[in-house]
Amino acid sequence: MKIAQNTVVTVNYKLSDAQNNLIEEGAQPMVYLHGGYENTLPKIEEELDGKEVGYASTLQVEPDDAFGDYDAELVKVEDRKLLPEPLEVGMQFEGMADGAPDDEPMIFTVTEIADDKVVLDGNHPLAGMALRFELSVIDVRAATDEEIAHGHVHGAHGHHHGGDGDDDGEEGDHFRSQPLH
Predict the structure, then answer these.
(1) CA dist 17 to 42, 64, 71, 161, Å?
(2) Residue pair 108/177 in contact by the 8 Å Cβ criterion
(3) Burial status of residue 122 (CB atoms within 10 A of its CB: 0-12, 13-18, 19 or more)
(4) To pair with 22 at 20 to 30 A between CA atoms, which of 16, 71, 116, 125?
């Protein structure tokens, strides 16, 4: 089956920077719903469109087509007393960028902690970087009607709608999130 609109694609991947320094080697394959559902980068979808199981490629994606340029204005220093304890580098908080349009909240990551100050960065950790993806298609299947309606993959390595009402707290999700004022 060819990769096309409304197919579920399973891809082994390795992510490096433009100098080929390894950033992440997917321990689990990436599984996404193909066709503009924003489940992966558009350049990856463009590269894989029309391909089949066994296709392999190395793709370089520039910052404009990945996570954007690094914006120094998205870095803010806050009083430590405004944030909950215990506080650790890597924790994430929802907050507002200074002068943010439309009052849209964003995620800030704690990047540095001093005695009474905390540095919060609203940039994606990969912002400003050209990224190199080594991709290998290992499965393609038709999406279910439910996956199409929800706009994402269900099941193994995809999204789960648990019947127990606990839809968050996936394993590995060790960041705590707090609203910032």
Answers:
(1) 18, 14, 19, 34
(2) no
(3) buried
(4) 71
Tracing tokens 């960028």 back to the chain, one arrives at 97
Cα angle, residue 92 at apex, residues 86 and 93 outer, rounded to 5°? 95
Cβ pair 15, 131 in contact under 8 A: yes
Q: Where are the alpha helices (DSSP H) in 20-144?
A: 42-48
Pure H helices in the chain: 42-48, 145-150
The two beta strands, 117-121 and 106-113, are: antiparallel
Q: Which 8-state DSSP code applies to residue 143? A: P
pLDDT in tens, 155-181: 754 544 444 334 443 333 333 333 343
pLDDT digits (tens, 9 = 90+) for 28-68: 999 999 999 999 999 999 999 999 999 999 999 999 999 99
CA nearest neighbour of 65 among 13, 133, 118, 117: 133
- Per-residue pLDDT tens digits for 117-126: 999 999 999 9
Checking phi first, is residue 12 left (phi over 0); if not, alpha (psi -120 to 50) or beta?
A: beta
Residue with the two structure tokens 């320094």: 21
The model's pTM is 0.73
